[in-house]
Every structure is written in C-alpha cells, then in structure tokens.
Amino acid sequence: MAHASPVSPLAPKTTPEVGPVAGVRFATAEAGIRYKGRTDVLLLALDKGTSVAGVFTKSKCPSAPVEWCRDILAKGSARGLVVNSGNANAFTGRKGREATALTAKIAAKALGCREDEVYLASTGVIGEPLDATKYEGVLEETAKRLAPLPWIDPAKAIMTTDTFPKLATAKVKIEGVEVTIAGMAKGAGMIAPDMATMLSFVFTDAAIDAPALQALLSKGVTDSFNAVTIDGDTSTSDTLLLFATGASGAPRISDAKDPRLARFRRALTGVLADLAEQVARDGEGARKLVRIHVTGATSKRSARRIAMSIANSPLVKTAVAGEDANWGRVVMAVGKAGEPAERDRLSISFGPIRVAHEGTRDPSYDEAEVSAYMKNDVIDLTVDLGLGRGADRVMTCDLTKEYVAINGDYRS
Amino acid sequence: MAHASPVSPLAPKTTPEVGPVAGVRFATAEAGIRYKGRTDVLLLALDKGTSVAGVFTKSKCPSAPVEWCRDILAKGSARGLVVNSGNANAFTGRKGREATALTAKIAAKALGCREDEVYLASTGVIGEPLDATKYEGVLEETAKRLAPLPWIDPAKAIMTTDTFPKLATAKVKIEGVEVTIAGMAKGAGMIAPDMATMLSFVFTDAAIDAPALQALLSKGVTDSFNAVTIDGDTSTSDTLLLFATGASGAPRISDAKDPRLARFRRALTGVLADLAEQVARDGEGARKLVRIHVTGATSKRSARRIAMSIANSPLVKTAVAGEDANWGRVVMAVGKAGEPAERDRLSISFGPIRVAHEGTRDPSYDEAEVSAYMKNDVIDLTVDLGLGRGADRVMTCDLTKEYVAINGDYRS
C-alpha cells in the first residue's frame, strides 16, 4: 500500500457484530498475486440453491471480472466468490478473459461446483496480466478452511487504502422465520498505479429467486451506492453482488413485490445505505461527510442531477474543506447542471441555517452561526429549487489536499 | 485578493505588443465597488457603427450582467463596455437587474450613446447587491481620459487571481486593407467568497455586420474557450464579447462565409485559441498544461465528450500533478464518458510514447522514458479509440494541492 493513512475521522465509532449468515462460509489466503507474504485472496462458498443478483460499473471499458460476472448472471445461481487484490485484471484484453476463465475453473474444482456459479472480483494494478495459475493448489487448500465467522476477516481482506473495514447487517422475519442480511464493502482505494474501485458483497439466508433478487438490488442501489460520489470518477471494476442462500428455512419468494418481502426490502435498503455511507465516510482524504438534499425540483431525476452536480463540484468540495459556507459556489453548481432552475426561486441552507432565499442572500443569516456549523464532521446542504416536488439526496465528502497527496504524490 | 500567488510557471515568457485597434479607447478608474483605493472599473468606448457578438455561460443561474448583455445583443450595435471587479452582481435578483440598468444609464450618458449599446461584465463577490450609484460621476470623469493605448492596462484591470495578464493579437488584410484583432481574457480567479469566472473581450477594426460576427464567434469558440476546462465548474458569469468597430476602412462584410473573410476567420480563431490556452496556463494552482487529443472516435462530438471526461477527471489530473503516466486512470475516464469505446481497440500515448495498445499495456514502452516525459511543463496525452474518424482536442491543467489551498484555505 502506498499510503498508510490514519483512520478516517469520519469512521463509525464501533464495527458492528456481523454474521453468521446461514449458507455462507469463507477463508482468506496468500496467492502471491502481486506481493509475497500478504493476504490477497478471499474465497467464499455458498450453499447449493443460492441465487444471485448484481449491479456493475457503467464503464464502457469494464474489467475482465465484471464481464465474467455479467455473462454468468443470467444463470442466476452462485456457489462461490473469489476476490483478489494486487491486480484488477482490467485492460488486459484476451489474457484477462483467459485469467477469469482459469480462476473460475480452479475455484469450481475447489468448491465442487460449476464454473458459471463462481463470481469474481479483482482490485489492484491495471493493465498487467493476472497470472491465475497462482491459484492452483491455493484455492483447494483455502476451501478446506472455510468457516462462517468472523466477518471482520473478509471485510479486512478486501480493503486497499480503505482506512476502516465496512460492514453492515440487519435481521428481519419472513413469515415468522428470522433471516439475516449482512454485507461488506470497500471504497475508493489505491494501490499504485491503480484506480479507485468500489466493491460490495451482500449476503442473506432468505430464499429469494434470482429475478426477484435482481429487482430488489437494482431498486436498492439507486438511493445508496448510486447516490454516493467521491470524485465523480467511475471505476472499471465497480461490483455489487447480492447472494441469497435460502438456508434460513424461510419460505421461497419469487416476486419482488410479494408483500412478505416488505420488511426485508426496507432492511436491505438500510444495509446498502449504511455501506454506501461508510464508503463516503472513507473517501480519500475526507474530513467531512456532506449530505446534499435537493427539494422542489421538477422531478426526482432532475433533483439527482442537480445534487450530483453539487457533489462533484471541486469548488463546492474545497469550500467545505475550508469550512466555508460558500453558497455562491452552490448556485454555480446548480446552474451548470443544465436542469430546470430559476435563480429567483432558489433557497440554500447549511444545516438549519438558510443562507440564500428567492434568488438572493438571506438577509437574516448570521455569519458566525453558519461558520460554527461548518466546523461539524457532517454537513447537511439543502437546496430548494421552488419549482416542483422532485427531491433526492446524495452523499459525498470534501476535497482536501490529502486527496491530491494520495492520488498525486506517490510517485514523487 | 485572498492569495498573492507567484506567476504561473506556465505563463508565456513575454507579453505581446497589442493594439491600438482603430475605434477602441479605454480608461480605468476607482469606483470603490468593494474596496477603496483600488482600480476596479474598466470603461471602454467604441466608435459609432461598432457591431457586436457574444457567447455566454450556459448556466441556468446566470449573473445579471450576462442577462443584460443577452437582452441587448439582438440590437447588434455597441458603443461601450463597463467591466468591474469586486462584485459579480450574480444571484442578486431584482436588485441585480436594477444595478445593470443604472450602470448602463450612467455609462450611456458618459459616452453619449443609448443604454442598449452599453455592454456589462462583472466579477467578484456574489449574492451582494452591487451599488451602481457609485458609478455616478466616476464614469463621466473616466470618459474624459479614454485613450487607445496601452492595452496592458485593461488586461491587468480585469485580473482577479490571474497571475499574469492575458493578451493576444493578429493582423490580416481584407481586400488590401490591414485590420487588427486584439483580445484580452481573465481566467479562473477568486476573490473570497467568489467563484471562478472567465471573461474575454476581443476587438477588431474590421467592418463586419453583427449576424456575421456572431457566426464567426460562435464557430471560433468551439475549439478555443469551449475546449478549455480547469475544474469542470461553469461560472454564472462567463462572458466572451467580440466587437468590430469598422474603423479600419476595410470594406463592410455581411456574410460570415464571404471568401474575403478567410484569413480573418483563421486569425480570429488563432487569437481566441491563444487567449484560451493562456487561461488554461493560469488555472488555479496549475503546474502543467495538459493537451488532450482524442482520435478515432465515432464523431467529433463523441471525441469532445471523451476528451472532456479525461480533462475533468480528478484522478487523471492528480496523476499528472504527480508526474505519473497513469494510463489506467485514462482508461477509466474513457470508460465513464458513456461514449462508444472498445477496450480492445484503445491506444494511449503520453507525448511520443505509446503506453497502451489494443486494449492492453504496450509491452515495448520504457518506464524511465515516460517518467522523464512527465516532467515536462506541457503534456500531450493522446487517446485513439480505433473506431472512426472523429477527433478533437481540449486543454486543461493538473490538479495540485495549491488548487485546494486557493479554493479551500482562505477562510482558515
């Protein structure tokens, strides 16, 4: 790791107790993908009957593992997951495809399943061929050590420059049977010369058919992972997978709209939102978590675009880093979003303090009060367009010199 | 000014000798818009018969002066230009409109012209009402000092945190009559709590009717100012105006496609490109100028979008700051642009060194050679998509800790 950064000041105070999830076992190993003597591979085994859903990067140049997962997702069943660090297997062309195929073959043999039931995710250096022959023997040995606990182990194994492991969990009942949801994520991390990559894996012992699971995940991701931005840069490797083992004994459900899933749906959304917020809290160099609330837009879609324009604005993010309630830059970011907006109807608040109203500075606001508010770790920025009922919320972090140092200094 | 930064290391070695342009006179004054004892207003007078064209910010929340200029542009004739610093007159609602009207009224009286012949541009703090009564007497006095030289004065007067004045000029003949083009620009500047603003004013003594002038400017801006990005943040005040006084005695031309304008068109494009490059060279905290060339795209429009995605990527820009030929991040930025791209056809070069080819690392490139190249002040980054004939070029600068300091530190 290029930087041994201190733990983010925005890290949760405690790591939650997570798992076990019936039907999920795992173990980590050293395969020597890039460095010797370092844990660099996570093997997860899933019980027979596990269904799977996935959401991936929208990049037009996705990594080989992303292409592999997309291809096999139509089958809808999963028995294994292999996650490695040290090599992203991205921009590796034909060799990349050969590496994914060989990894799946070795893992399938170790787990006793089909190759198209093995999901893959990689993070690390890009453009270098991944030598999957290094998994030979290693995964077989690892499979013998598979265990249902402790979940902190895989959460740590997938970290790169994350400064804390990211875990979230919830328990709900489906027709009286308790089911568990547990997930882990890694955020924007860096191994020279790598790129930021978001990976998240969520597991449940509920029994939900793959199409319903996909519907739940696709909906759940909108207001969680898709509502988080660190720097507007989309990785070639972003991967979010949801596995349902069915091992809880809860009744099998095949329709995402089944009313028996109401609580599960809320709990899943909660776990995804929790993990996504942890990713924002661990943004590179982040010192402040910024929650951007847009209301009064002409639609939710328009509110999302305006919120993202604000969240990705370097001028807004550096102002927050400087503890400056610079609403002029917020106006700028609203204006450049290209969405319906009328200056004379715009209101802007930092926390409870309205600083601008109806297209002009709010004469009643107290500069000392808003300056004191900006010293908080978590900043709520609210923009009301005054046009309609469209509302949305996204999360980001501030842009600090440390971000530039992490991403620009490591070769100097 | 919050920061007295040293002159950008990318500044041109010499300031060009510019002007006079027949029919253009100017003077600067202290109006006390925000601070006392400081030059803060530029008054320009244009001879009778001057035609005008303009291009403005696409922001949905433009400043009051931008709205004023847009409104009067249809008339097509100009006699004056008033530029002030200290107050951007943006996000000032009804009061902002009253201030522009009063400024035009006072300037029109001082210059002896109609109010709708007076163009306005403002830069400085936003959200504070601009007290235009401060111009009373001042503009009248200033009008008595109007002179055709020296052009360095107005170029300096419009600077905010620009570290050098930006001037460019060219001379061409139209039917044997020499005409001059001369322009000035200010770049991404900052007066706390202001925002970046690009202003540029270009003048010629050629005689060109307003519709033709507008066509020339709209075309010329595409590959100059619109091809430059510092941080992807669009100001509420961006203003580019082109005035043609006709005072050279060259024949009046009413059609932008008139073959007699061929040389003029090229010269104008050159002046705009020169000024735009100077803006990029003076980007906040910039240590390197980055020229991004995209070839082989499916269209020029697609090439532009891909180039802008690379130019606005914080991860690419921090890598350049760190003198790291991180082509993995370039792949990422190509991938996130959402435009047609195929990993297996992609080639990437830094300067003359091809680092990636056909979707994988170019095995022949020498890491030491590319590291040496990255130490240059000007970096040429070429991406070939291998799909079609669409090509484009944009310019940006690197993202340094100094950018964060300029925009984030001034309140601390």
Report on this structure.
2 copies of one chain form a homodimer. By secondary structure, chain A is α+β, with helices and mostly antiparallel strands. Chain A folds into 2 domains: 24-281, L-amino peptidase D-ALA esterase/amidase; 289-408, ArgJ beta chain, C-terminal domain (Ubiquitin-like (UB roll), Roll), CATH 3.10.20.340. Helix content of chain A is 29%, strand content 23%. Chain A has 11 helices and 15 strands. In chain A, helix 7 (300-311) crosses helix 9 (327-336). Chain A is globular, with a radius of gyration of 22 Å. Residues 190-195 of chain A have low confidence and may be disordered. At the A-B interface, helix 2, helix 8, helix 9, strand 13 and helix 11 of A face helix 2, helix 8, helix 9, strand 13 and helix 11 of B.
Summarize the structure.
Two copies of one chain form a homodimer. Chain A has 412 residues and is an alpha+beta fold. Chain A has eleven helices and 15 strands.
Topology (SSEs and partners):
Two copies of one chain form a homodimer.
Chain A lengths: L23 E6 L11 E6 L4 E6 L7 H10 L6 E5 L8 H19 L6 E5 L15 H6 L8 H6 L8 E9 L2 E10 L12 E6 L5 H13 L16 E6 L17 H20 L7 E9 L2 H12 L2 H8 L5 H10 L10 E4 L2 E5 L2 E2 L5 H7 L4 E7 L5 E8 L3 H8 L4
Parallel strand pairs in A: 4-5, 8-9, 10-14
Antiparallel strand pairs in A: 1-2, 2-4, 3-9, 6-7, 7-8, 10-15, 11-12, 11-14, 12-13
Helix pairs in contact in A: 1-2, 5-6, 7-9
Subcellular location (chains A, B): Cytoplasm
Keywords (chains A, B): Acyltransferase, Amino-acid biosynthesis, Arginine biosynthesis, Autocatalytic cleavage, Cytoplasm, Multifunctional enzyme, Transferase
Function (chains A, B): Catalyzes two activities which are involved in the cyclic version of arginine biosynthesis: the synthesis of N-acetylglutamate from glutamate and acetyl-CoA as the acetyl donor, and of ornithine by transacetylation between N(2)-acetylornithine and glutamate.
